[in-house]
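Researcher: Next entry in the queue.
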Amino acid sequence: MKKFMLRRIGVADDRSGVRPSLHDCIEIVLLQADTLMTDVLEGLLASTVKTKGKGTFGHHSAASKTAIEFFCSQSAAVKRTFLSELRTAVYSSGSHDFAEQPQVRFEDLQLLDTRQIDANIEFALAQQEVFRGVDDVLPSLNALISGLLGWITVQSQLNPLKPDVFVRALQACLVQHLPDERARAALITPAAGLLGVSLRQLYREICDWLRSQGVEPATPVGSPLVSAKAGHGKEAQSSVSRTLVTLDKLRRLLTGELGSVMGGLPNFSHTVPASFVALEDMQLVEPMMRRLAQRASVAAESDMPIDSGGRQVEREQTQGKQLGKQLGEEVVRMMLDNLMQDERLLLKVRELIQTLEPVLLALSRADPRFFSERQHPARRFLDRITHRSLAYASESDEGFFPYLRSISDAVGILTKGAADAPAFAAVLGELEEGWTSGESAQRQQQEEAARALLHAEQRNLLAQRLADDFHERQKNKDIPDLVASFLRGPWAQVVAESQLACVDGSADPDGYLALVDELLWSVQLRLARRNRARLVQLVPNLLIKLRQGLQSIQYPEERIPVFFDALISLHEKVFEGPRQQAPAQPAAQLPQEVAETEEELGALDLTDATGFWMGDDEAQESGYLPEDAQPLAGEDADADQRPWSVGDLHTGVWVELIVEGVWLRAQLTWVSPHRTLFMFISRGGLAHSMSRRTMERLRMQGAIRFLSDGHLVDNALDAVAQTALQNDVEKLEEKP
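Model: Structure for this entry, 736 residues:
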């Protein structure tokens, strides 16, 4: 009998017509956590039982059987752990979906020990087993979840119920309830396979349920913008060469264990971290170096061949050194292969980078710091030219050929010279000096635009606090909505601008803050009628001050008379005489001309989506895009984009956005301290700034899309680490 009958998750008996939320979907899945783990435990126990003389299913060893029995004996605790870990994994999965994160990063390998590497391999094995079980139903689930989230196209990485979260929960269960590493390694693959079978059925039921609730699947899209898969080398290179790379060998390459030899011991000087001085002060350097040398000698002994008498034969030091050279060369080739497949880089740029292969191969043999130091001059050179290349979407873009000529000259110098670290540093210095000299005016404009945006953010944040204060002052008072909105919006901006411009710290240098109470008094009919003489004296100065204040923030001149006319209409009611048994008119009963004025003004209220104010000069200087602006759709507006979130953006990332109906590439160069404003720079130094809310709206409309984090070289090396991880997984699968 099926574990997940439709009626158990409400497909048959829930006909309320209310569209389910993502939270509803997640909670339904979490209700099935016990059933998923029950299937896994029952399957593991069944695999240890002999059937009809055919032996043990799965060929478990005695140790494996013991581990299975021990694990299954903790059934209740295992289920609680699985549910807890699954809930945590599901609800935290969406916080890291800005871009697909690699399981293993190249830079982190030198920090991992053997146990951590094994854990990564275990996870990859389990992930692969689960994917095999659900690969046919997962696309449908991704499409429905994307539709539930409001996306037009499928965004698989935004699916909080993706197989990874179940694998992480399973792995956490095994770690907690099976402390023995060998026992976990024996169980992870069969347990993941059983989980995949059960999860496939659950995915099918969830898909049926979502369809029955009226959820429409998002539209599948073509291949992603950029292929990030590792291990697709040149056709001329053999698969045997690719399998040279494993996680352990990469780690040894990064830590110098396969590097040069000095005085019979490995030279670890290039792997000492930035805190070397602190270690030296604590007199810990020598013990650290001894530990590293001991680890290298143990690793070397494990690779020694065995003679006919069963004794280890000592290898020559050059053999380990030769392996390091071969591995370094292979990593360089794989890194370049990944860059060559990156279509975000124009073809001519990729061809120039490819010509550096002999230079980089020689460098890898002579200087292993190329792999272990992210700031190595050669790494920085590659990073800078690829990062800058992202500004150009086609060869016809303005400025591309001068850029191409500059890097072509630099590559020519490197291919003809020594091409060591100092040579790369010198060439990079000349390149950046040339780029900097031609962009000084643009940088000055960008700095001025950033200052204008920073001032605008400070004013808006201060205005928001003032608006809250003005709201408190209006409590228990009959204030027309027109005046209340005006104080919370434009006038809060006026007072904030006045306070920011004051250098002596005065709270009310221009008297704009004191005017708030006067304005509130003047529109309360009962109070004003008691002292009409005061109102007559107050109004002229009040209007003058209001005009001066609004002009200080460049409030539109055409809207000032509209507000003044409405305000004067309210004041004139004071002289109409009191009405018996009639309270002051609420805003809904104000004269028709005043009610129409409220709509015409559209007064700024900082509590809603249109509350961010920018003056004309500030907006023009920073290329500010108003929040109510509608982008002109480009030809490719519905093209596939990688899942990303505004909150995850950092300076240096590249995006594509629609400007006047044309897609432009732009780099995020400035983010305000409170992350309410973002400024992008497209080619030619043109600024495009917008609020966070505007960017979220454009993202949902497909008018802005993430292109790259800018770290193309790091990503290419991460892909090498992913290939190494896959090699480890395949080797384990090949073992009988």
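Model: The first helix runs from residue 22 to 31.
Researcher: Noted, moving on.
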